[in-house]
Amino acid sequence: MAAERGTAAEALVGQVVLPGDLLLLPAHYDEDAEGERLQLSAGTAPQGRLLCGPGLRRSGAGLLVTKCGLLRHRPGGGGAYWVDSQQKRYVPVKGDHVIGIVTAKAGDVFRLDVGGSEPASLSYLAFEGATKRNRPNVQVGDLIYGQFVVANKDMEPEMVCIDSSGKSSGMGIIGQDGFLFKVSLGLIRKLLAPKCEIIQELSQLYPFEMVLGMNGRIWVKAKTVQQTLIIVNILEACEYMTAEQRKQALAKLSGN
Questions:
Q1: Which domains does the chain possess?
Q2: pTM of this prediction?
Q3: Rounded distance, CA 199 to CA 204, Å?
Q4: In which order are the strands placed within the sheet that holds 217-222?
Q5: Coil, strand, or helix at residue 70?
Q6: Angle of helix 197-205 relative to helix 185-192, nearest 10 degrees?
Q7: For residues 149 and 102, what is the distance between their CA atoms, to the nearest angstrom?
Q8: Which of 22, 67, 80, 211 is the most buried (most CB within 10 A)?
């Protein structure tokens, strides 16, 4: 009965979908052979397997929409479907790299505001080279770039600033001189895409440093305060500008 009310996923790619919509998959995805099940993962799709991204979950022989937005599809391998939305409220996900703001120290644990419904915890030992005698110099108000190792609805989110080999890999305390601002989660995913045109165009305008958090936060630092603010304004406007409008704006700035 549910299948009769559904719509083919391929026919809705690029269109708006609403929570509760049922998307039907092509027949070869319904075989459910061993090793051919739908994989709820954000990694690279093995040949023949379909990936279910943000805004979708498995429902029988199809996909159930859980958030409003544009349906997207990436071919290759088994392909991938996800919903591209302008969501700003962040829900912690294990493995995500985020920017947190230290709000308190509680014994050997730091509390961080990550934009979710509750703060995340970060142990002082979760930094490269940290020991009981060599503690990191973390103060309330500091910005921390880290990764979630625990994130589910039944437990407090937990972050670390080291990878599996104990190295920082770029994570840790972020410098004080930059500018922190917030954008939608959809824009963050665009900026994190390989060979992002927006990043490439901005890098030709001014040299700058940037940290992107999956929780919608961006930290930017350029050579001067004026250049930093220009980059911030362009990134904030990218959500409402076409590619052509963005190029025209950058051309005017580079001409000045």
A1: 1-26+50-85 (2.40.50.100), 96-173 (2.40.50.140), 179-254 (3.30.1370.10)
A2: 0.73
A3: 9
A4: 179-182, 217-222, 208-212
A5: strand
A6: 80
A7: 18
A8: 80
